[in-house]
Amino acid sequence: MNKPYYLTTSILYPNAKPHMGHALELVQADFLARYKRLHGESVRFQTGLDEHGLKIQRTAEAANLSPRAFVDQQKEHFTGLIEQLEVVPDQFIRTTDTKHAEVAQAFWRRCLATGDIYKKTYRAWYNIKEEEFLGSADDVKDPSVFGIEERFIELIEEENYFFRLSKYQDEVKRLIEEDVYKITPKNRKNEVLNFVMNKGLQDISISREASKLPWGIPVPEDPSQVMYVWFDALTNYLTGACSIDGQGIITTDLEWPTDLHIVGKDIARFHAAMWPAMLLSAGLEIPKNLLVHGFILGEGGRKMSKSLGNGVDPIDMLKVYGSSTLRWYFLKEIPTTEDGIFTEDRLKEIYASDLANDFGNLVSRVLTMTQKYAEGKVPDVNLEGLGNVEQMIVQQKWEEYHTHLTSFEIDKALEAAHSLVVFSNKRIEEMKPWAMAKDENEHAALQELLYELLEIIRHITLMYQPAMPSIAEIIQSKVFTAEIENPFTWGGLQPGQTLNAEPLILFPRLA
Ligand code: MSP
C-alpha cells in the first residue's frame, strides 16, 4: 500500500467567527486534496481548531462562558463553514480532545528525554493576539518598538519551561536551504532563512504558570504549568497520524511524515523553524513541504476590518453566491502565494465573466447544438485523425495544469483550464456551426466540430472538478454519464453514445 499524501491546513483559532482568510486556506487545501484524489493518489486531509491559550480564555470570560462551553459553541461555526464551502477533510482535530492532550504530553516527554527542555525564570513581552513571545523584557525596555497595539502586549515574569530551539538552528537552516523541507514560494523560503541567519533561533518558553493561564494542556509531571499554545498546537499534526502506548508516540511509514502543511504568511515561521526543531528533538521525521499563502485583503487593499467597513463574512457570500463561485474566486482570482483583494463587486464580475458568460454559456450552447444538430448524441464521427489540433491543445493544457500544480500554483493551473473555455468559445464564433447546419456539404465537418467541443468540455470539467466539485458533478451526472476507461486522454467520449443534452443553466443570472 502506498503512503497517503498527508496534507493539512493550520488549526484555526475559534475565538471569533471564521473569516475569509480561514475560508481561503480551507479551500486551497481541499482543492489540492481533491486534485490528488482525482488523479489516483490516496490522500489524508486534516484540519481542525486550536482551542487553548490566553486569547480563548479571555474571550470566553468576556462572554461569561467556561472556555469549554465557549469553544464547543464556536466549533459549530467552523464546521458549518467547512460544510458550506464543500471542504471535505478526513480528520478534524480539536486540541481539547483527550487524544490530542495525550499526544502533546508524549511529545513533550520525548523532547525532555533528549535534554531539550529546561526551566528558567525570565521576563518577556508577549503578544496575546498572536500568542507570540516578542522578546526579553531585560533587553527591550520599551515594547512600542514591536509596532503592536499596546492593548495586545503583556509583560510576563515567570519561571517556565524552555525549549532548546537554538540547538537546532544549523540543522533547520540546512534542511530548508537544501529543500529537504521545501518552502513555497521562494521569497518566503528566503525570508525564513534570513531570519534564521540574522536573528538566530533563540530558546523559547514553552509553558505558562497554570495559576495564570489554566486553559491549556498540563505539563507532564508538573501540573503547576500548562503548555504554551504553539507547542500544543503544532503537535496536532501528529495527533491524527500517530498512536500512543506506554512507549510514547508511534508513527507508521504509512501515516507520517506530513507531505504538505498549508499556512498563512503570519505563521510561516512557527512552521518553518519551531516545528522541524521540535520534531528533530523528538526524533521524528520532518514534513516535506510548507506552502505559504498570502492574505485576503479588503477593498482598497487594506486589512479587512469592521471599522473600515470592508469586512466580508464568508457565510454571507456563500448564502448569495454559493460555494462554487466563492471557491473559484479564492483559487483563480487570488494568486496562491500572494495577497489578494476580495470585494463583492469583483465577485459579481467574475461570476458574470468567467463563470456565466464563458463557461456556463459554452456548456449551454454546445448542449443546445448537440440536441439540434446531432439528435442529442455524441456525434457518430470517425475518431481516427479527428481533432488533431484540439487534441494537442488539450494535452498541452493538461501538462501546464499539472506542472503548475506541482509547484502549488493553483491560480495558474486554473488559468490554463480556463483558456480552453476561451478557445472553445472563439472556435464556435469562427466556425459558425449555425451556418454550417444550413449547408449539406458541411454536415460532416459540423459533426466533427461538435464532437471536439463536447470532448473539450469533458476535459475542462475534469480540470475544474477540484475547484468546483458540485458544478462538475452536475455536468457529469447530467451529461457525461457513461463510464470512460481513460478519462484523462483525448477521445474518451464514444461516438454515437447518447447524451443527456437537455439545456443546462449552470450559473443563472443573479437576482
Ligand atoms: N491557531 C494558529 C495556527 C496554529 S497551526 C499549528 C493560528 N490561527 S488563526 O486562526 O489565527 O489563523 C489560521 C490561518 O488563517 C493561518 O494560516 C493564518 O495565516 C490564516 N489567516 C488569517 N488571516 C488571514 C487573511 N486575512 N488572509 C488569509 N489567511 C489568513 O494562527
Q: Structural class, judged by helices and strands?
A: alpha/beta
Largest sheet: 6 strands, parallel
The pLDDT mean sits at: 95
How many individual β-strands? Answer: 17
Q: How many H/I helical runs?
A: 16
How are the strands of the biggest sheet laid out side by side? 3-2-1-14-15-7
Report the uncertain regions.
none
Give the % helix: 40-55%
Ligands present: 5'-O-[(L-methionyl)-sulphamoyl]adenosine
Q: Gap between N and C termini, in Å?
A: 50 Å
> How would the global form be characterised?
elongated
Task: Estimate what percentage of residues fall within beta strands.
Answer: 15-25%
Rounded Rg: 26 Å
Describe the structure.
- The chain is 46% helix and 16% strand.
- It is α/β, with parallel strands linked by helices.
- Strands 3-2-1-14-15-7 form a 6-stranded parallel beta sheet, with helices on both faces. A 4-stranded antiparallel beta sheet has the order 5-4-6-8, covered by helices on one side.
- A hairpin with a 2-residue loop joins strand 12 and strand 13 (248-251).
- The protein is elongated.
- Helix 5 (169-177) packs across helix 9, helix 10 (314-333) crosses helix 11 (344-374) and helix 15 (443-464) packs antiparallel against helix 16 (469-478).
- The chain contains 16 helices and 17 strands.
- 5'-O-[(L-methionyl)-sulphamoyl]adenosine (MSP) binds next to strand 1, helix 1, helix 7 and strand 14.
- 5'-O-[(L-methionyl)-sulphamoyl]adenosine binds at residues 10-13, 21-22, 24-25, 50, 233-234, 236, 263-264, 266-267, 295-296.
